[in-house]
Amino acid sequence: MNIAFPLRLAVLGSLMVLPTGGLQTVSNSAGKFDGNWTTHLSCEAHGESPAYKFVFPSTVKDGNFHGQHGEEGNAGYLVIDGQIADDGLAKLAAKGLVSGPHGLISSMRGKNYSYNIKAQFTGDKGTGSRDEGAGILGRACTFEFDKQPDGSTPAPVTPTAAPVTPVPAPSTPQ
Predict the structure, then answer these.
(1) What is the pLDDT of residues 85-144, one digit of tens each?
(2) CB 127 within 8 A of CB 145
(3) CA-CA distance, 67 to 40, in Å (whole number)?
(4) Rg of the chain's alpha carbons, rounded to an integer?
(5) Which residues contact 49 (CB under 8 A, 6 or more apart)?
(6) C-alpha span between 138 and 130 (Å, rounded)
(7) According to a count of CB atoms within 10 Å of the terminal CB, is the N or C end of the chain lower?
(8) DSSP letter at 8?
(9) Is 0.85 topped by the overall pTM?
């Protein structure tokens, strides 16, 4: 009789009785971040693209973050999804459609884009930043997340008809 078979069977049997809770990176008790959130997105000007800000509602359910600005398929649409770990760390994925009516970006209007967000949630607050990649097309963007009280209405959304809010350049004395 080959000894390898009973040995494999014993190892497999012992693995079946081990608790699996310690092997998970995201806990089943992820409910501590569950609820309605307001997402504040602020992106700096980059090249010919002006700075802009979005404010939109987001939700966390079973530790899964989901936020959406605008209507899917329309310019200015943005959706953010990802899992929040027990320690509050999250790697969120953003994807959307370019909306910019200004400069170089106008030729990209309606084109798809995506990036990752590194975020940290603590209690009823969170912060994050966009992965700028090589910096060629990426721009510096920051995120603030505010948890809303239970039973509150979702956060107001910046208008989708004018999703880009240019930040005026400082004036110079003449």
Answers:
(1) 999 999 999 998 887 654 444 556 667 888 999 999 999 999 999 987 655 567 889 999
(2) yes
(3) 11
(4) 22
(5) 100, 102, 103, 104, 105, 139
(6) 8
(7) C
(8) H
(9) no
Q: Under CATH, what is the fold of the domain 27-147?
A: Porin (2.40.160)
Q: DSSP letter string over 84-141?
A: BPTTSEEEEEEEEE----SGGGGGGTT-EEEEEEEEEEETTEEEEEE--TTSSS---E
Q: Which residue has the tokens 């497999």?
A: 12
Domain ranges of the chain: 27-147
pLDDT band, very low/low/confident/very high, at 168 (cuts 50, 70, 90):
very low
8 Å CB contact between 97 and 75? yes
- Enter the tokens of residue 99: 């909306």
Residue 139 to residue 119: CA distance in whole angstroms: 17
